[in-house]
Amino acid sequence: MTALLKLTGVTAYYGAIQALKGVDLEVNKGEIVTLIGSNGAGKSTLMMTICGNPRARDGHIHYDSQEITRLPTFEIMRRGLAQSPEGRRIFPRMTVHENLLMGAFGRPPHEAVQTMEQVFTLFPRLKERMAQRGGTLSGGEQQMLAIGRALMSRPRLLLLDEPSLGLAPLVVKLIFGAIRELNRTTGLTVLLVEQNAFQALRLAHRGYVLVNGAITMAGPGAELLARPEIRAAYLEGAH
For 55-76, what is the mean pLDDT? Predict the structure, then answer.
């Protein structure tokens, strides 16, 4: 398989604190890859480092066979990456429609209309709430909006940071089902950072375990799900 994203020996720091310690990670075209780990393991830092903030101090990040390690964030995102960040970060005073249009900034109008219809097919509730302000939506609806906004740029690689955080189980099931459907029908490549290890490993083709900024384990999602040490550390009582 061809790697769309490849990290080799990546380190990152916040001041004097080392957050990533020589991370090696690959995401192949058409895959869903998940990164699991406890709070403070460095999962979100890794996502942000891919996007150039913080900048990797050592190592290399390649996207579509081109090195992006030293590129500014706006140049990285122009290459077909989109991120749905932890905490959603939608525009609360803007309507659902306006939030989605922000995700399509720079795209031709006809493309924005077409992609918005695809988002509404994926998340019908957003169409029902199209004129509603983002800040008045439920947590689950805001998460759908954050993912929908990311999809509006028609990315080749979607970075999802904690999409299930704080959501009810039924909403989590809906969102993970939408990610699976997107991957199945469009071949969209997804890198998923998630604390809900059970749902993430069931969804993913492959997974990585991050502990204190270092990858400690990797393999097919189903294999990791079956490993006793993974079950003990991340799954007991989680489902």
Answer: 95
